[in-house]
Amino acid sequence: MKSPLAPGIRLITSFSRDSWYRSFILFLTFLFYTAYHLSRKPISIVKSELHRNCSTVIRPADLNVTNNATWCDWVPFDQDNYQTLFGVLDNCFLVAYAIGMFFSGIFGERLPLRYYLSVGMLTSGLFTSLFGLGFYWNIHSLGYYAFIQVMNGLVQTTGWPAVVACVGNWFGKGKRGFIMGVWNSHTSVGNILGSLIAGVFVSSAWGMSFIVPGIIIASTGILCFFFLVEKPEDVNCTPPQHHSDQDSGEVEPLLQNSHHVNVAISTEPAEAVEDHTEAISFCRALSIPGVVEFSLCLLFAKLVSYTFLYWLPLYISNVAHFEAKEAGDMSTLFDVGGIVGGIMAGLVSDYTGGRATTCCVMLIAAAPMLFLYNYIGQRSLGTTIGMLLVCGGLVNGPYALITTAVSADLGTHESLRGNSRALSTVTAIIDGTGSIGAALGPLLAGVISPTGWNNVFYMLISADVLACLFLSRLVYKEAQGWCGRAPRVRGFKEI
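RESULT FIELD:
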């Protein structure tokens, strides 16, 4: 009697070759951008070690010091303006990142993504490690650390446009919000792992808090070089369908509703799909309906998210009086909430067809939650945990949705039909504009925090409100569709 096929083999063979390749690419790109964010996180953890409350630190008996208040601090961060200096380091990275992002998408469309990502991760690993080596080389020059931050900010721009373009090449519109909501959890997973890894070494040898993440991202760069497949056609897989076959004449839906598209994968052979090799221009990308609005919304949404990314551990340490490691561990709860928020934003926007409305509702809800966290968030451990989870979900949900599903939808807009090289530029414009906010947030936090943390939170709440205002036209368009005045579409119609 012939034995039945093993259950595990039956499971494996139940998936098509295309499905296996798509899952593999989704996993690889998830791993790559996890490494990018993992290598950005250490500086926020190390801040509270570079400038400490030395009165609570046991001084070695054989150590001769002249200043009892700052003997344990790392020069040049032993001065009263240490928060401003931290802001300088943050902005060296973030300003360079924001400027580089606008050019990164252009390069990403014209260079092989596999090479582009590999070189970017290897060089990012180099500069991240060089920052940590300053501890072992006993470097106390602000210029050295600022230069490393600028260079790291530039090379880190290779990541986002490239991974979104790669995922966009492999996945069509069907359930894109949910798939990319799950996939975008790499941002929060990277932040969590970066915090935990940096926290292991921060109190003993903070240099290793940078060197270990640097080695990790460099290793993923090598993995990228050997295994990344940029397009389905490269391995004879079927390319996805990025738009519906229905032509609506002069008025085209920007983002086709998934309820009207039951098949996400085109049945045409790969050879039949036209591939325009001419890269899209910057101005052409800006003219796509929705790019400007979502870009400006992301500017303020990212301002809030990155202020938490760089300043939350120090805020917890100062207000709740936690040690550096405990503050870093506690801050990971914000990213845990961000994972759930990103997935929920994708699910809701898929179901309702309203990307802009989903973002706007979450941003509106985030404003009072930020106010409450500042006033009651540190009263008890349970309150702190709950508020961090809620704030993380509401703040990072819209940020995740715009940088993934919305960017991919806009980058495969009907007006770009057949052009497979537009997605990287559109993604770079949206994320580059958002990165301006990412640079402004930590800078403003560094300037405002000496006047009191309350003022920092007022700034964050104001940014949330402004982000909502930039989406108001798109929300109105979506509401019209739901009320029956216009076809229900995901996003809004071209006008």
